[in-house]
Design brief:
It is a single chain. This protein is mostly beta strands and 246 residues long. Helix content is 0%, strand content 61%. The strands form 5 sheets. Strands 6, 7, 8, 9, 10, 11 and 12 form a 7-stranded antiparallel β-sheet that branches. Strands 16-15-18-19 form a 4-stranded antiparallel β-sheet, with no helix packed on it.
Length: 246
């Protein structure tokens, strides 16, 4: 433990260690009191812990499969560790905004090594940074940054995936892949072939894309969604089924 004194005089310079000589070294008694000998005046004091960091990180790495980023990290020791927020930021803007994408529970206090993983799925094309926000049980936190950037590239062919969740109520997501910039239309039909909604109709950049459909106004039942994408003198069309439940 160390004791810090706050100089609140006009010319004071804030907090400084109260240990300039052996006879001024403070000692801590119990969990709430400190004794500082030869003190002739009173002003605020703080007690700091010079012990080890709450978590000693041995490694933090990433692997990429398509549009799925798998993060792996290993701790040597942990003290009072509640867990880790996993955060992601898009690289390319002046002020990167960190987005929490998940949470992984820690192991409290442990003197043995622990391995952790988290998979960030369905990430759109681009370059990203990742970091861990390690949080103590008392609310304190510390950041650990991934040393490398993660680049989600461009797919090699057109594709569209089954919507998820399915059945859904009221929203669902549709993933689709564009090998180059394309004009994309996604239309929803009922069982009679009548168009009931236009999910998407716009020009899209090449890459892994996701659109969210809100079916609040749909009745329960089975529907079909069709994608038509065209670009670079190529076209793609496919129809899949989705189920709305109320």
């Amino acid at each position: 433990m160390s004791v810090a004194h706050f100089d609140n005089s006009v010319s004071g310079n804030g907090w400084f260690p109260y240990s300039s000589s052996p006879e001024q070294t403070g000692t801590v008694t119990g969990s709430h009191f400190t004794t500082v000998p030869n003190m002739t005046s009173f002003s605020p004091f703080a007690i700091a812990n010079d012990g080890p960091l709450p978590v000693e990180l041995a490694s933090f790495t990433s692997t990429l499969t398509g549009r799925e980023v798998k993060l792996s990290w290993v701790t040597n020791t942990e003290i009072n560790n509640s867990g880790f927020d996993v955060e992601r930021a898009f690289v390319g803007t002046t002020n990167s905004v960190w987005l929490k994408v998940g949470f992984v529970y820690g192991n409290g206090t442990s003197s043995v090594s622990h391995s952790y993983t988290y998979s960030d799925r369905n990430v759109t094309s681009g370059t990203y940074s990742y970091r861990l926000k390690q949080i103590d049980n008392n609310g304190n936190y510390k950041y650990y940054n991934l040393s490398n950037e993660v680049i989600i590239g461009v797919p090699t062919q057109f594709s569209i995936s089954q919507n998820y969740p399915n059945p859904f109520n009221p929203t669902t997501k549709i993933n689709y892949d564009l090998p180059f910039d394309s004009k994309v239309s996604i239309v929803l039909f009922d069982l009679t072939g009548r168009q009931v909604a236009s999910i998407l109709n716009s020009s899209q950049q090449a890459g892994y894309q996701t659109v969210t459909f809100n079916g609040t106004n749909l009745a329960s039942g089975t529907y079909f969604y069709q994608i038509i994408a065209s670009g670079e003198n190529q076209s793609f069309s496919k129809t899949l089924k989705m189920v709305s439940v109320k």
